[in-house]
């Protein structure tokens, strides 16, 4: 049985839940509360498992894997069907480049520890912090919108979602939480609407998790 | 012939130069100046090639690939020998998780556009900006130091560098530019010293590039 250290609102953990569901893999969740007790990801017990001190962490027997995209690659290598990535190297690269744009150039700028640093250490006001948040979402999603239009199909695997959608849907979930205007991204909204109708995505949604508040 | 859109000091482009050299692949560079003309990565010509507006971009015939880690994966898939990643899925995952920690959780917080936003839009003073920079380097490299100690060999491919070192050495180059104290990371410094003695890394160094200033 796979074990996922997760938090309902962690969008990196949400990516992995989607991927596990798309592959039909059973897993148990261990909740790690990112706010309570000053952030349980900083506890000695958790750091012994994952020195990066971030979520998610997947445990598969003796193997412990940090970083959501490393987990997605591992799942695709160890449980190849159904695939999360296309088989053609050039297309795999397009899909990874879009997923990495979300995972490197949107999400890390807006995650909890960075927002805490902005307000706590730098004294950035709430409104300026929200503008920061929406700025990186806007710059990033505009590029993702362009990238989606260059893919040969509606979804990253033609008619099927995978690696890219596992990153995109959590990012859009976050953007909506912060009231970002997404009307400039019709292609993204079409992909999100389709994915949100699928059980793999529905069951991975934050509000459906055992630790949801 | 492969073409790399690059800037001498872009550490994401530096990663790809290392990977190309490790594989012994010939390539030509097209310089994109990240500061001149308000940043040439924002020009219409470059955005037509790469809507993400970031470096690097690899062009292989009709295939255009953004995002350094997507390029590394593509190179490993299309030119498998010498490999950048170990063959065992669990070990591949460890290596990717460390590389992604650098690529997602250190570098994007400290790259040019973010530092420009901090000083330009948020009015963060120079000293506080440097503290921000060093904070994310410290938090990130401390985790990478722990992760390196869990690898079975001295380097990510035993006695040979690859994917991980292609990310680590540029990150350390950046950290030194900003006078980060790296003495707490002896394992990282050992890896860096070894890699810096190899031609693949020497020839990829920023100061060796045709557009170096």
From TrEMBL, chains A, B:
Any one cellular-component term (Gene Ontology): cytoplasm
Q: Does the keyword Isomerase apply?
A: yes
GST C-terminal domain ranges (all copies): 88-213
- Any one GO biological process: glutathione metabolic process
The UniProt similarity line reads:
Belongs to the GST superfamily. Zeta family.
Enzyme type, top EC level:
isomerase
UniProt cross-references to Gene3D superfamilies, sorted A to Z: 1.20.1050.10, Glutaredoxin
Gene coding for it: maiA
Q: What is this protein called?
A: Maleylacetoacetate isomerase
Q: Name one GO molecular function term.
A: glutathione transferase activity
Taxonomic superkingdom: Bacteria
Which residue range or ranges hold the GST N-terminal domain?
1-83
Q: Which InterPro entries match?
A: Glutathione-S-Trfase_C-like, Glutathione-S-Trfase_C_sf, Glutathione_S-Trfase, Glutathione_S-Trfase_N, GST_Zeta, GST_Zeta_C, GST_Zeta_N, Thioredoxin-like_sf
The enzyme's E.C. designation:
5.2.1.2
Asked if the record carries the keyword GTP-binding, the reply is no
Q: Which SUPFAM superfamilies match?
A: GST C-terminal domain-like (SSF47616), Thioredoxin-like (SSF52833)
CDD domains attached to this UniProt entry: GST_C_Zeta, GST_N_Zeta
């Amino acid at each position: 049985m796979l074990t996922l250290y997760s938090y309902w609102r962690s969008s990196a953990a949400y990516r992995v839940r989607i991927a596990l569901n798309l592959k039909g893999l059973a897993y148990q969740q261990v909740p790690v509360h990112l706010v309570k007790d000053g952030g349980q990801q900083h506890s000695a017990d958790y750091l012994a498992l994952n020195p990066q001190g971030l979520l998610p962490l997947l445990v598969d027997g003796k193997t412990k894997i940090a970083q959501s995209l490393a987990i997605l690659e591992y799942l695709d290598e160890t449980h190849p069907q159904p695939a999360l990535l296309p088989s053609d190297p050039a297309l795999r690269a397009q899909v990874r480049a879009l997923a990495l744009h979300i995972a490197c150039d949107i999400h890390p700028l807006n995650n909890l520890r960075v927002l805490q640093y902005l307000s706590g250490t730098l004294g950035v006001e709430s409104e300026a912090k929200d503008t920061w948040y929406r700025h990186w979402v806007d710059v990033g999603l505009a590029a993702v919108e362009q990238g989606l239009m260059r893919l040969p199909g509606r979804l990253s695997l033609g008619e099927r979602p995978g690696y890219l959608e596992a990153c995109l849907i959590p990012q859009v979930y976050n953007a909506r939480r912060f009231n970002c205007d997404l009307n400039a991204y019709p292609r993204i909204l079409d992909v999100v609407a389709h994915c949100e109708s699928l059980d793999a995505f529905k069951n991975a949604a934050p509000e459906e998790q055992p630790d949801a508040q």
